Input
Amino acid sequence: TLANNALNKLSTFTDPSERIGLEVISVDHGLGQIKSIESLQDGGEDYFIVEFSDTKTKNFFPVKNNVNLRMISSKEEFEIILNILKKDRKMEEISSKKDKLIYFNRSVSKNCIKEITNRICELAVVKDVTVNEQKILDKLIKTLVIEASSVLEISLKESNELITTYLKEENGKG
Output
C-alpha cells in the first residue's frame, strides 16, 4: 500500500550496497541520489551519503531508523497522491491562536508521501495563516512539486502549476 511505500522500499534491501544509486527525496533537502554508504567510525553506524542535485551538497542519513529520507514514488503511487489532492477538503475548527499553532506544528512523517499530501490538504484550507505557518505549508508543497517533477517527468514549473491548480480548486474539486 501507499502508506508502506518508499521508506519501506528503502529499508527492505538486504544488502545496503543495493541502495547505492537510488533516487531519494528529503523534505528538508529535496531530490538526491545515494552515492555511497559509509561508517563514520570503526564499527560505528552506517550512513547513506546522499548528494542533492539542486544544492550540490552531500548529507549523511542513518541507514537504520531513517525518518528523513525516502525513495521517489512510482507513477502509480503518485497517481494516488494526485487523487488525494482532488478530494473534497474541509477546514478543521480551530478555536484559538494556540490551537492553530499546535495544529500547524504537528509532526508529519517526512518519509510518507501520503501523510505529507494529507497535511498539505489540511493546511491549504486554513484561513488567515501567519508567515511561519505559510512557511511550513510551502516547504511541504515544494517537496511534493519536486517529486511530481521527477515522477511525472515534467519541468518544475509545470509541476508547480499542477499541484497549485489542485490546491486552488474550490474544496479540491475540479
Strands lie at 23-26, 30-39, 46-52, 57-62, 70-71. DSSP finds six helices and five strands in the chain. The mean pLDDT is 80.
